[in-house]
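Appendix B, record 7
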Amino acid sequence: MSGQLSFLLISFVTLLMCSGLISASEVAFFSLDVNEVKALANEKSERSRKILALKEKPRYLLAVILISNNLVNIGIILIADTMIKLLLGNGEFLIAGEWLSNNIFQSSLDAQIVANIFNFLVTVIGVTFVLLLFGEAGPKMLATNNKNSILNIMVGPLTFLDYVFRPISSSLVRLSKFIESGINTNNVHTSKEDIDTAIDLIVTKTENSTHEADILKGIVSFGDTSAKQIMHTRMDVVAVDVNSNFKELLKIVKDSGYSRFPVFEDDFDVIVGILYVKDILEFLDKDENFEWQKLIRKNVLFVPESKKIDELLGEFQVKKMHMAIIVDEYGGSAGIATLEDIMEEVVGDIKDEFDSDDDVEYKKISETHYF
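Structure tokens (predicted):
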């Protein structure tokens, strides 16, 4: 009996190691990034050739890994069940079954049935714990930091198993493709939150990569963002009254630093056009009575608050415009949105010489003193 038990124990440990290595190889192969694949291609060795051959057919590789792991795990469960029966024997389980039947189930279940159920639960719970710890979680965590070692160990066995199980894996791959083709992919919806989480997982946490992640998130949410969300409200808009004289206009231009101004008549709800600063440059020497109103461009783009910014960008491109007046549900002017506002949704804040810098660390308090 001791010889049989020793053989079963050695077989159990061996199969458990195989299960762990197969699980680790799944992580090692499927976590190879583009740069690592390029490095393997440049090696031009037999080892790298086999790794790339397996990597090039991920469906078949995954099928082989799953088939092998399941067969090994079945073997582990059968051996574990035999070992438990040899160690404890049916007598111990029967004693436990009689006690449970009398004290827990009040003799409503036969002691032998309870003993069999107890035997099954002990085997399943015990083996499941061992498999999860030593056959799944542990090896996969180990593989993340020892990818090359796992690849070196498993490339040969997996190449052999791929050859042995190719008929089965081919059938599984064809079946999976058939099932996928029958699924209406139009009903598959990935939420913005899922994509944002995926971006955070794949982008490393450095200053540059964080900015790249923000850009990716901006692109993801681009089509869902409305003009109302990016607009400057009418309280923040610098606009020009059409009845202002040229001197007043020049002061507004100088103080604001903007290159385009909405022009209104009496009230901001009545927009009559857009004034481009470049159009008045050649008239800077004129007096305050200069009729600058002739330079107003009457072609104004009015859009509702609900307009998506991807559609607004398309209109900007087609009409070669940089500013839109945002109109609320009552027809009044709610604010403005510019091409720069749309760009900032993707790339972040765009600073120019007229934007205030919140991070400034000094302030001029006199000609010779700074604070």
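Remarks on this record: The two ends are 89 Å apart (CA to CA). The first strand starts at residue 232 and ends at 233.
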